[in-house]
Automatic annotation (TrEMBL), chain B:
UniProt GO molecular function: triose-phosphate isomerase activity
Pathway where it operates: Carbohydrate biosynthesis
Domain of life: Eukaryota
Name assigned to this protein: Triosephosphate isomerase
Assembly and interaction partners: Homodimer.
Record-linked Pfam families: TIM (PF00121)
Protein family: Belongs to the triosephosphate isomerase family.
InterPro entries: Aldolase_TIM, TIM_sf, TrioseP_Isoase_bac/euk, Triosephosphate_isomerase, Triosephosphate_isomerase_AS
Annotated organism of origin: Oryza barthii
Ranges in coiled-coil conformation: none
Record-linked PANTHER family: TRIOSEPHOSPHATE ISOMERASE
């Protein structure tokens, strides 16, 4: 069967109680394509997960933006995968570029997190992507492959994994990633999965685009054959997120 | 992003003002009072309990809990009879703060276990100080040994976190402490003072700071820290503050013990002159034991 379009909204370190209420209201009232066509996940900060989970329409799922690498215990400040499961939070974003660069998360650490989260029953949005320096040195696929390998060495079942490609080189650098550039990496990554994991995993795993996605460019990106959806940043806090979700219909057109 | 709720900010600011007034009232009026004997200093501290010298007990739940276990613990805490002259704070994981805030008695304040170093924004997985204020969280634990040694947070990063949190009116439990290898190399005070210096380089107003000494050397190493060993470090830290910050800050600030504290040893620890309370680990997950630890403030009074 075809890969179901996937749209995740990463709110990052944003939101107040009032803003969260407004965003949830927009999401609850928005006209969105059916769950047969698109899978939608939103990812608030930890402190807002319970309220979003309780107020959000059931067709839209909730994700945490991170979790701890192993079982909970003496790890002050961390939230464990089993805590998320206990609160019925089904998804988690792991290996986001901001955590790799600002919090020093290594490929192996991210791989261990993905494996542990899956072992506890979470579904994972696993992020990969290269910096400007890496791209300009011609290392794009080497970097993305190494990041993906650190995950594939630690897991067997990819059913509950969505891979998000973040063109870090185009985030805050003044560069703009074109849909063709996104497609090129997605295609390369899918080929890597086919060669290093299996043809079945390559065919069934959703590879979503985690670059700058807006109401204006979402349809063109969605039309690319190996772009299976988005991990949306700032636009996920705005009404245009509804339009981005509905770009899923481009795939069935 | 939008500024935190003006109501919450204003409320916390007023609390901060009251605390600052308390500090001034508690400070020695004349230099010669600094030479007061031990028993007189203890008596003074009891009298000053209405100010910032008040006994302080924080419960750090760490990365523990389920919806049900949190509910049970909150019920136990709500049912406990707590002594009046002690500040009590609990620190649930981020994901349970909402549940705790909605069900716990307001006699007990709530802390986060960590916070981001600056304003919120593109920092996936982090929580900002503005967000803590927005959800009614009054405190944050910073520099905990598990974040220093497991996560890799360095002194300067932690110092900047403290400065930013305070600037947003979040009160700070600032943690310091040395590893076993550091202690055995005779570097206890070097390490603690270096950690203190990183806080002092960043903090300008200490009114909303509590210092927690964690004898990391006795955590999971088979060693046991005695009340005398705790007192020795607490007294040295207070002296360091007196020399490097000011005598007023040194006398007004709470220095709490973050080693292994339980219902059996809390009374003995509380009697030590420079131990102003506790940052409790595992025992804070047991409601009745934690209440006993909170109420060990009475041992402080007996000692005085």
């Amino acid at each position: 069967m075809g890969r179901k379009f996937f749209v995740g909204g990463n709110w990052k370190c944003n939101g107040t109680t009032d803003q969260v209420d407004k965003i949830v209201k927009i999401l609850n009232e928005g006209q969105i394509a059916s769950t047969d066509v698109v899978e939608v996940v939103v990812s608030p900060p930890y402190v807002f997960l319970p309220v979003v989970k309780s107020q959000l329409r059931p067709e839209i799922q909730v994700a945490a933006q991170n979790c701890w690498v192993k079982k909970g215990g003496a790890f002050t400040g961390e939230v464990s995968a089993e805590m998320l499961v206990n609160l019925s939070i089904p998804w988690v974003i792991l290996g986001h570029s901001e955590r790799r660069s600002l919090l020093g998360e290594s490929n192996e650490f991210v791989g261990d997190k993905v494996a542990y989260a899956l072992s506890q029953g979470l579904k994972v949005i696993a992020c990969v992507g290269e910096t400007l320096e890496q791209r300009e040195s011609g290392s794009t696929m080497d970097v993305v492959a190494a990041q993906t390998k650190a995950i594939s060495e630690r897991i067997k079942d990819w059913t509950n994994v969505v891979v998000a490609y973040e063109p870090v080189w185009a985030i805050g650098t003044g560069k703009v990633a074109t849909p063709d550039q996104a497609q090129e990496v997605h295609d390369g990554l899918r080929k890597w999965l086919a060669a290093n994991v299996s043809a079945e995993v390559a065919e069934s795993t959703r590879i979503i685009y985690g670059g700058s996605v807006t109401g204006a460019n979402c349809k063109e990106l969605a039309a690319k054959p190996d772009v299976d959806g988005f991990l949306v940043g700032g636009a996920s806090l705005k009404p245009e997120f509804i339009d981005i979700i509905n770009s899923a219909t481009v795939k069935s057109a | 992003m939008a500024a935190p709720s003006s109501l919450a900010s204003s409320h916390l600011s007023r609390l901060a003002d009251l605390r600052r007034a308390g500090v001034a009232a508690a400070a020695p009026a004349h230099p010669q009072q600094l030479r007061l004997g031990c028993s007189r200093r203890r008596a003074q501290r009891v009298v000053a309990m209405a100010g910032s010298g008040k006994f302080f007990v924080g419960g750090n739940w760490k990365c523990n809990g389920t919806k049900d276990s949190v509910s049970k613990l909150v019920t136990e805490l709500n049912a406990a009879t707590l002594e009046p002259d002690v500040d009590v704070v609990v620190a649930p994981p981020f994901i349970y703060i909402d549940q705790v805030k909605n069900s716990l008695t307001d006699r007990i304040e709530v802390s986060a276990q960590n916070v981001w170093i600056g304003k919120g924004g593109a920092y996936t997985g982090e929580i900002s100080a503005e967000q803590l204020v927005d959800i009614g969280c009054q405190w944050v634990i910073l520099g905990h040994s598990e974040r220093r040694h497991v996560i890799g947070e360095d002194d300067q990063f932690i110092g900047k976190k403290a400065a930013y949190a305070l600037s947003q009116n979040v009160k700070v439990i600032a943690c310091i402490g040395e590893l076993l290898e550091e202690r055995e190399a005779g570097k206890t005070f070097d390490v603690c003072f270096k950690q203190m210096k990183a806080f002092a380089d960043s903090i300008t107003n200490w009114a909303d700071v509590v210092i927690a000494y964690e004898p990391v050397w006795a955590i999971g190493t088979g060693k046991v820290a005695t009340p005398e060993q705790a007192q020795e470090v607490h007294a040295a830290v207070r002296d360091w503050l007196k020399t490097n910050v000011s005598p007023e800050v040194a006398s007004g600030i709470r220095i709490i013990y973050g080693g292994s504290v339980n219902a059996a040893n809390c009374a003995e620890l509380a009697k030590k002159e420079d131990i102003d309370g506790f940052l409790v680990g595992g025992a804070s997950l047991k409601g009745p034991d934690f209440a006993t630890i909170i109420n060990s403030v009475t041992s402080k009074k007996v000692a005085a």
